[in-house]
Design goal:
It contains eight helices and seven strands; from the N terminus they run αβββββααββααααα. The chain is mainly α. β3 and β4 form a beta hairpin. The N terminus and C terminus are likely disordered. InterPro entries: Cent_Immune-Sig_Mod. It comes from Dissostichus mawsoni (Antarctic cod).
């Protein structure tokens, strides 16, 4: 019994004992010699064929049966032999065990080489010292061994792939050769039938058949030409459609890139507008805090003005009382203490007049400060109202996200950028403007410092409390 692969190599014809052999098979003196890939030779008697073991009906073909039936039966037998399970004793075992042994031997050799090259000598102290050069050599050896092992693995993988490819290619070759043998047998049978039919038919019938076949050939050629023309037309139409679609795709890609750039620009503008809104919110909060501080200062200054007015009234009343007392005292004792009293009264009057003058000055300064604070409050309120209007406009435009609103925002942003660029250009290319700005800033700083120092002086300690 031969296996599946061996059966692929042999075609047996039990009728006339004809053998269609593969090039690896030889017929020697009535015996069949199979040359296997692993140099195993199977000998069998030519009279005992493989077909005797097949459980097929009608294994003994009679010579009276037609040739087509014989060929079909032979093909079925060959397919059965090719498709059955390959369980034979003439095959060499797989190389898995050999590969394992080879790998174990290589591993043991590498381990022995590693132990041989390792030079570690224990010292009497109990510690083991290793030289740096030995370590470097050991690392080099290990790297080399790993590299070699990796190369061997790659080679093994490549060999496995090549063996699998060879097995697949060999199986494909055997199947192709089998099909080729079948086709050759069919061609021979058809040739034999053709010869028989030619012998039976007369020459006139043959000529008629030839003419009919030529006519059919012409018809088939015309049909093929028509189909080819249709195919070429369809191909040209498909190419035109592909070109139009490609152009449309290019246009769509360009439009998508354009819209993407517009989207990125609008996104950047929205981010900048959000930053401007945050800045305006911060400025609003600062203005609110400044307005509250100015209101507190205004209320304090008003209270101080009221207290100063009350003190002024009290001083006027005291001065009137003193005048009345002076008159009474002058009426009572004009003769006794005229000179002394006059001098004391004059001193007191001078003192009270000085106090009144100081209080009047303080009242005037407080009134001027109050007026300035009121102006600051009015300006801050105006700025607050302006900021509120701007915020309302911004919120209104955000509720209606139209193209006009975005254009307006872009225009405002461009105007702001132009203003900043103009100031920067003036700052860089117009030195008088730079000097004027620096002088204005220094004057404002000196005025603020003088005002704070003046208000923090002991003269105004009663009406001003520094922060």
């Amino acid at each position: 019994m031969l296996g599946g692969d061996a059966a692929d190599d042999v075609l047996l014809h039990p009728v006339d004992h004809v053998l269609l052999l593969h090039p690896d098979l030889e017929v020697l003196q009535g015996q069949l010699v199979v040359q296997a890939p692993l140099h195993l030779v199977v000998r069998m008697d030519s009279q005992r064929t493989v077909m005797d073991a097949l459980p097929l009906r009608g294994s003994q073909l009679s010579p009276e049966k037609p040739f087509d039936q014989k060929v079909d039966l032979r093909a079925e037998k060959r397919e059965y032999l090719r498709g059955r399970n390959n369980v034979t004793s003439c095959r060499s075992p797989t190389r898995e065990l050999n590969t394992r042994l080879i790998k174990n031997e290589l591993k043991e050799k590498r381990h022995l080489e590693f132990l041989r090259r390792r030079s570690v000598s224990p010292e009497p102290s109990g510690f083991v010292t290793v030289k740096e050069s030995d370590l470097q050599r050991l690392t080099d050896y290990l790297q080399e061994a790993l590299w070699k092992e990796e190369a061997v693995r790659k080679k093994l993988a490549a060999l496995q792939e090549s063996t699998s490819n060879l097995v697949n290619s060999s199986s494909k070759i055997w199947t192709a050769r089998c099909s080729e043998d079948l086709l050759r047998n069919k061609i021979k049978a058809l040739e034999a039938q053709l010869q028989v039919s030619l012998q039976k038919f007369p020459k006139d019938g043959v000529k008629r058949l030839v003419i009919q076949m030529e006519k059919q050939k012409m018809v088939y050629e015309e049909r093929a030409l028509v189909t080819l023309q249709k195919v070429t037309q369809e191909k040209t139409e498909a190419l035109c459609k592909a070109e139009t679609l490609q152009e449309a795709l290019i246009k769509v890609n360009a439009e998508s890139l354009k819209w993407q750039s517009l989207y990125e620009e609008l996104k950047l503008n929205s981010v900048k507008l959000q930053e401007n809104q945050h800045l305006s919110d911060d400025q609003l909060q600062q203005l609110h805090s400044q307005a509250e501080l100015s209101r507190g200062r205004e209320s304090g200054l008003r209270q101080e003005v009221v207290s100063l007015r009350q003190e002024n009234k009290d001083l006027h009343i005291k001065s009137q009382d003193l005048m009345m007392q002076e008159r009474v005292m002058s009426e009572e004792a004009e003769t006794r203490l005229a000179e002394r009293r006059d001098s004391e009264v004059e001193k007191e009057l001078l003192h009270t007049q000085e106090k009144l003058q100081l209080k009047e000055r303080e009242c005037e300064e407080l009134q001027t400060e109050l007026h300035a604070v009121e102006q600051e409050c009015k300006s801050s309120q105006a700025r607050l109202s302006q900021c509120r209007d701007e915020l309302r406009q911004l919120s209104h435009h955000r509720r209606r996200p139209t193209r006009c609103g975005s254009c307006w925002k872009v225009c405002l942003f461009l105007l702001f950028l132009l203003a900043v660029a103009g100031v920067a250009m003036l700052w860089l290319w117009h030195p008088p403007f730079r000097e004027q700005v620096e002088d204005l800033y220094s004057d404002i700083e000196t005025h603020i410092e003088d005002y704070l120092m003046d208000m923090a002086s002991p003269q105004h300690s009663g009406c001003f409390r520094p922060i």
